[in-house]
Amino acid sequence: xxxxxIAEDEKSIREFITLNLRRHGFSVAEAENGTESLKIFExxxxxxxxxxxxxxxxxxxxxxxxxxxxxxxxTVGIIFLTAKTQEQDKVFGLYSGADDYITKPFSVTELLxxxxxxxxxxxxxxxxxxxxxxxxxxxxxRLSTKKRAVFCDGQRIDLSQIEFQILELFFSKPNRTxxxxxxxxxxxxxxxxxxxxxxxxxIRRLRLKIEKDPSCPDYLTTxxxxxxxxxxxx
Length: 234
Hints:
Blueprint: E1 2-7, H1 11-23, E2 26-31, H2 34-44, E3 50-54, H3 62-72, E4 77-82, H4 87-95, E5 100-103, H5 108-129, E6 135-138, E7 141-144, E8 149-152, E9 155-157, H6 161-172, H7 180-188, H8 197-210, E10 220-223, E11 227-230
Parallel strand pairs: 1-2, 1-3, 3-4, 4-5
Antiparallel strand pairs: 6-7, 7-8, 8-9, 10-11
Helix pairs in contact: 2-3, 6-7
């Protein structure tokens, strides 16, 4: 059974989400603030597949709760619930380690579609973790599909599952331009109907982790008007 944690301080919204998810076969745990959500996650991190976090919560806001949860797990799916519409708020959420966000008010159809998309990625990651070891070598970088990890000169780079999937695609097609649409389809799925700027945010976040100078990247380069390219140096 799919297991999900909902952290939402507004009881009516939390109960509405819980009711609809249970109707669709989810096992649901509930938290009414950020501190409680972190405690529940720590106790159940091996069984939870997806976490829904409201951005504005008492005791510990969703952004900080997301950062702490991501430190505990690189594979769990995280989706923000937010009433904010400003572009910068969405970007902050994605930079803190979230996979996606849903802006209030939202329909049950949209909620389920976003959760299912993230859940499919989580399930795929778990299946790959149990598969035979496999590696992709790209210059000084080494990607392990078994460990779901990337290493540079032997040092592990701390990546989210989204970042890992993006690099996995680039490493499989070095020195080839990959469009934003191809990245969306590969990582978020063809049914994704959120903001395609999610790609650009994750590219910027990746550059901060792998580039010496993120503003002038040596590896993950921009091909203006077309997409992005990984320069393997080989």
